[in-house]
Design goal:
Length: about 240
């Protein structure tokens, strides 16, 4: 690999991997020695890249507008257009608008040839049936999840019974025909999946459950995967 290509690849990895990323991890991904990584990092710094950290501690990228923009292959551009178009088709008004704005911003930073590829993408999304707008404010659910703040919800279950729950919102899952709020139910002291369309009302409690969200979500996802594996084995 040419040095220029290697430097761009290294820049992409430092930008994309969870910081701080060690030289050993970068060397394994690049299939070069750690000594080469150290030299290349110094070369990037000399070129203006703001890379914090040192040997033995790991490295973190501090984005700088003077750095060259990331570029994409044509297939990556198709994936971006398709994914953001799907969000526009599936998401609520705020999320769909954000996807449209994001695509516009990304396209504007691309070289002219790649801008044309984005505009002329061959992968398109169209849904004849528009999703029903939920009664609950989706922005409220997202913001509570970001803030790791407990929610008080009024929920109608599959039997029609209406209950009030306190939950820790963990994530929103977009399934084929329904959006699910994954959360920890304080009443049941267990994980639960709530259909967003069945949430009649919700309010933020002001009580934080930080920093439990990420560990809880990992446990929940692991349980779902194990359940899918059990079902696959039965089939």
């Amino acid at each position: 690999m040419a040095k220029t290509d290697r430097l761009f690849r290294l820049l992409h990895l430092i930008r994309g991997l969870t910081p701080p990323v060690t030289a050993a991890r970068l060397a394994a991904a690049m299939e070069v020695s750690e000594r080469t990584i150290y030299r290349d990092i110094e070369a990037l710094r000399a070129a203006g890249a703001r890379i914090e950290g040192a040997a033995g501690l790991g490295y973190t990228m501090t984005e700088d507008p003077a750095l060259p923009p990331q570029t994409f292959t044509q297939l990556e551009i198709e994936a971006l257009v398709l994914g953001l178009s799907e969000v526009q088709a599936r998401g609520d008004a705020a999320l769909g608008g954000a996807a449209e704005d994001a695509l516009t911003k990304i396209t504007a930073t691309l070289p002219e040839r790649q801008q044309r590829q984005a505009v002329q993408a061959i992968n398109l999304v169209h849904r004849f049936a528009q999703p029903h707008a939920p009664a609950v404010d989706m922005t409220l659910l997202r913001e509570a999840s970001w803030a790791e703040e407990a929610l008080e919800i009024t929920y109608r279950d599959n039997s029609g019974a209406v209950t009030t729950r306190r939950i820790y919102p963990l994530a929103l899952a977009y399934l084929d025909n329904v959006v699910m709020l994954l959360g920890w139910c304080c009443l049941r002291q267990d994980f639960r999946q709530f259909k967003v369309g069945s949430i009649l009302a919700a309010r933020r409690s002001g009580d934080s459950f930080r920093p439990r969200r990420v560990p809880l979500l990992r446990q929940f996802v692991a349980r779902l995967r194990a359940r899918r594996q059990e079902m696959a084995q039965r089939d």
